[in-house]
Design brief:
257 residues; alpha/beta; Rossmann fold; six-stranded mixed sheet; four-stranded antiparallel sheet; 12 strands; 29% strand; globular
Length: 257
């Protein structure tokens, strides 16, 4: 057993695509439990950071440690059962049923059967439904159940509610944040209000690295305005603050009305 105090740790990560530096010297320490939202504008590197943390992308520099071990040296099967990765878009190559998807995810696992997972997650009625016949909300529930089937200690989710309606997006975010009470959950997301309202820790990515890392107090930081290129109006709304963006008067320039 590793003596590392961190479940997942990035040390000096760098990622380059052609001549574009996506991330540079990124370091991040994540404990065994907690809900973490990763926010930032399009192209900031949120998805790339999650892929590096999951070991799905090789870093050009630095390393990722899983329980103190270099993730590149952790066997793929062990990594798959230690880290659950929920992509922004998922479309199986074959139009499988939920039972088949769960069976693939649970290969080699002794924790649960596909039937037990479906019963636990309230998806028993979907057991014979094929992926293409499910609605967006149903697919999101099914995908989350599939990713979490072996009960991985780490869950990384990349914009999981991007294509869902308000109700289903809120339900999904609440489910992910609630899991953070006992496990480590890291979610890349665009909805800043949901990030600050539901997650214990918010990591802001921009300019090729992490520019801020903290809690709900970050909602008041002027840095957010500059990173996202808008002027945020902070509106008091219990239990926190809502952000309303305006495209004007940033860095002395006049934006759209």
């Amino acid at each position: 057993m590793s003596a590392s105090p961190w479940r997942l740790e990035a040390r000096g990560l760098g990622l380059v695509r052609r001549t574009w530096t996506v991330l540079s010297e990124v370091s991040l320490a994540l404990p065994a439990r907690g809900s973490v939202a990763v926010i930032g504008p399009n192209g900031a590197g949120k998805s790339s950071l999650l892929s590096l943390l999951a070991g799905l992308l090789p870093a050009h520099s630095g390393q990722v440690l899983l329980d103190g071990r270099d993730i590149a040296r952790v066997p793929v099967a062990e990594r798959a059962h230690s880290i659950g990765f929920m992509p922004q878009h998922f479309e199986p190559h074959w139009d499988l049923t939920l039972t088949e998807l769960l069976g693939m995810r649970l290969t080699g696992s002794r924790t649960s059967t596909a039937e037990q997972v479906m019963e636990r997650e309230g998806l028993a009625e979907f057991r014979h439904r094929r992926w293409s016949t499910m609605s967006g909300g149903e697919q999101a529930r099914a995908l989350l159940a599939t990713v979490l089937a072996p009960d991985p200690p780490v869950l990384l989710a990349d914009e999981p509610g991007a294509n869902l309606d308000v109700r289903h997006r809120l339900a999904l975010v609440e489910t992910l944040a609630r899991r953070g009470r006992t496990q480590l959950v890291v979610v890349a997301m665009h909805d800043l209000d949901l990030a600050f309202r539901h997650f214990e820790r918010v990591v802001v990515v921009g300019r090729g690295g992490i520019v801020a890392d903290g809690g709900a107090e970050l909602v008041h930081e002027p840095l957010l305005d500059h990173i996202f290129g808008v002027a945020f109006e902070r509106i008091a709304a219990s239990p926190g603050v809502l952000l309303r963006a305006n495209l004007h008067v940033l860095s002395g320039e006049q934006g759209a009305a």
